[in-house]
């Protein structure tokens, strides 16, 4: 799994190599209606036709959701006397390790009915286990449905209910901008704005002033930059879409910062967050889930603000890729699927969302009542308010690259990002990455 600081914000498929090799090859993923264990996922039936007595629901999740899951289980078991829900959290908060455990359990006949998964792994589950679409009717009325795009796969079907979510943004040290007379963080809306600020601050300090780290979250940052300027990461057939003019233009900011000596050259996203928190890095790309930890680390040492990603044309409300986690039904029994849907709905009630998010975390709340309660708390600083009110539509992490090959694909993107950070010619670096990805997807380098 890849991390940003200490905040869990999603996952790539890099740690799933063993799992994918075991059960997610390109041939198995392409067989319609044939999950990896041979058992079809069942569509939920009318729950009134189901008998709770003697029914057991198995849930696979990790400790990030321990408190809301315990509360939701109690409500559902009370609502349906006789129903038993087996929900013991994995100790690890690593989504990759959780996925490997679920895959191993399924391989020995212990398929869970409900799984928690990192949003970056949704396409793997869709390609490999052929889940049924999410029953949106189980969601509370106050659920923010604009975020369902994060649980929608490449085929346009929503399979997962996002729970704890975040999006790529930037953090700006306002004190360093003030010292250089470089204006206000909130005025950075276009790439030219960012370059102007970077030049002014670097002229003042004599040091590079911006970090877009290529390692740690390469595919997420890349996708964020591409989509935020109107481009597309993945084609409908799973090949790379960002080699067009829009994609190259969107990613050229990375290379231009490098060419002009404005990119700090920090290799890892977590390191960039740490250096920003120390007060010596003026601007860095982060995610909304980092805001709480940065706020705690900065305290009152300096004035800073998160801002939406700048874009080529200054538009900042386009859909962005989401990190975090959500819930999906994998039950092979229609009644267990129905009870599973009820459990997911309960996990996403305002009370549960408050427990999952909380005033000490900067996840984007998926429920409006929970959001308003967070905003009314004494923890609603300008920085936390930015996270809790973030309302761009969200899309699938990874854009829908085939789940069996994402580790190799993300490695190709990371190599491209490393080249861009050093100021490499953008079109060449992008086209090389696209060629590598397409060869992987089309089976020429699998």
SSE layout and pairing:
Elements: H1 17-23, H2 26-29, E1 56-60, H3 66-79, E2 84-87, H4 95-107, E3 114-118, H5 122-129, E4 161-166, E5 168-173, H6 174-180, H7 191-205, E6 210-211, H8 218-228, H9 245-259, H10 269-278, E7 283-287, H11 291-298, E8 304-307, E9 320-321, E10 323-329, H12 334-347, H13 350-357, H14 368-375, H15 382-388, E11 394-395, H16 406-421, H17 426-441
Parallel strand pairs: 1-2, 1-3, 6-7, 9-11
Antiparallel strand pairs: 3-10, 4-10, 5-7, 5-8
Key descriptive features of the protein:
disordered N terminus; single chain; four-stranded mixed sheet; globular; SBP; alpha/beta; 446 residues; five-stranded mixed sheet; 17 helices; 11 strands
Brief write-up:
The chain is α/β, with parallel strands linked by helices.
Descriptive report:
The chain is of the alpha/beta class and 446 residues long. The chain is 41% helix and 11% strand. It has helices spanning 17-23, 26-29, 66-79, 95-107, 122-129, 174-180, 191-205, 218-228, 245-259, 269-278, 291-298, 334-347, 350-357, 368-375, 382-388, 406-421, 426-441; strands at 56-60, 84-87, 114-118, 161-166, 168-173, 210-211, 283-287, 304-307, 320-321, 323-329, 394-395. A five-stranded mixed β-sheet has the order 2-1-3-10-4. Strands 6-7-5-8 form a four-stranded mixed β-sheet. Helix 3 links the parallel strand 1 and strand 2. Helix 6 crosses helix 7 (191-205), helix 10 (269-278) runs parallel beside helix 11 and helix 13 packs across helix 14. The longest helix has 16 residues, at 406-421. The chain starts with 16 loop residues before the first helix and ends in a 5-residue tail after the last helix. The relative contact order is 0.20. Residues 1-34 have low confidence and may be disordered.
